[in-house]
Amino acid sequence: MDGAQARVQEAVSKMVNSLDTGCLRKMQVAMYQCSAKCCENTKSTLEDVQSCIDTCSKDVNKAQAYLQNEIEMFQNRLQRCAMSCQDKLRDQMPAKPTDKDVEKGRSGLEKCVIECADSHVGHIPGLTKKMLEVLQSKNY
């Protein structure tokens, strides 16, 4: 199961990097440029400058919250799939399992969890595309 977990982690990491380089960094550059302009205004009060900076960072903060929520939902789906595998194993296990039953169950559980992981990794390209579209349209 460690291999499946590593595949999921690698795929999620690639997705996050793709979203970062494809959209977030541009948003961060714009945020920092906007914030710098806020700081250049020497006639503004400290409160006005802080308010201006807060306004500059709203889009990036919303985008990051959106991404975090989407990734959490993906992880929750994967976790529910693995829990479903555990439920299936429990349902199939006899009241007094033998060592052979336990080993068979463990093997079946591992296979089921790996299938879950592989299935969810297969969803990542579509999820990445969807998230990029949302970020680019600023509909988060």
TrEMBL record:
Highest taxon of the lineage: Eukaryota
InterPro entries: DUF842_euk
GO cellular component: cytoplasm
Membrane-crossing segments per the record: none
Similarity comment: Belongs to the FAM136 family.
Protein name: Protein FAM136A
Organism annotation: Elysia chlorotica (Eastern emerald elysia)
